[in-house]
Design brief:
It comes from Lophotis ruficrista. This protein is an alpha/beta fold and 382 residues long. It has 14 helices and 14 strands. A six-stranded mixed sheet has the order 4-3-2-1-5-6, sandwiched between helices. Strands 12-11-10-8-13-14 form a six-stranded mixed sheet. Helix 4 packs across helix 5 and helix 13 packs across helix 14.
Amino acid sequence: YLPPTATDTTARLAALRGTMRAHGAQAYIVPSTDAHMSEYIAERDARLGWLTGFTGSAGTGVVTQDKAALWTDSRYWTQAERQLDCNWELQRTTLIESITLWILEAVPEGGNISLDPFLFSVETWNSYSWALAGSGRTLLPIEPNLVDQAWGDQRPPPASGEIYSLPAAFTGSSWQEKVAGIRQQMERHVRHPTAVLLSGLEETAWLFNLRGDDIPYNPVFYAYTLLTNTSITLFVDEARLAAAARQSLQAACPGPLCVELQGYEQAGAHLRRYTQGNVTVWLGSEYTTYGLYGAVPQEKLLEDSYSPVMLAKAVKNAKEQEMLRAAHVRDAVAVIQYLLWLEKMVPQGQVDEFSGAQHIDALRRAQEHSRGPSFQSISASG
């Protein structure tokens, strides 16, 4: 018996276990993150959702040859009970200690615990590494992703929408000015880093004043950036750049303000080549995966929680502050229109939460400069 809210994961687990056997993995850890530690993810990156049927935004799955378990927090316990089938155990915690204890019971000594190093933050990787140290089990990074192999051609395709320039009227600083500011910080830093590596999607979008729609409700696109003293490399699907965006990035070529475009998949290999020289790479560990972090030799690493770009982005210039206020005023108009509509419609019994959400979305779309909501509308209660 399966409730209609649950997904039958038997075939999916069988496919994953087949790939695990081929790679000598006794356990495989599946997080709910993407390769950029994004708060929200695209359907293509919803590996945990596909494997388990659980669609909550936070969780970790572990699969062995004969067991499977999902860890999630209290926001999602009821949802997980409804969405998981009988192949899965629900663990009502998110503590890595709980996950590793379960793994130690399920995997005998000498076993390999595997994961994709490009889906785990440096801190999370280290937590697993410390918890398993001295246990006789090996933490084994595996590329490519085993869930992707099991998912096969059913996996949603990569994003293909246009990447476009934000009009200058909305930014207050050109991307060239932002690059100059970050380079000044590099020069002033006591360790004089030669490069800044950007992994957070909003970092690259902010730095170059570019926007996309690769993740629902988020105006970002898949990219990495390596900014050095003398060069700028943007790792992105070049074919998706609007003509004006490409022209903006390459107007000053050749030169220190010329943006070299390379394929998104080239970031790791390029970083490894770059770090063979006498260099220091500055990065923010909160948004950098262990896979990229591990490509930089420790002695060539300058590590902060957040990159200088993330910190600069957090401080809004006068133009950005003005735009924020104006956006809030426009949104307030839509919300007031919605409340007035509710006052008229609710007594008639014509509104439920879904139709309310559709209506407020339409009111917001009617406002100038609307690019859609920042999350799925929560329109009403009771």
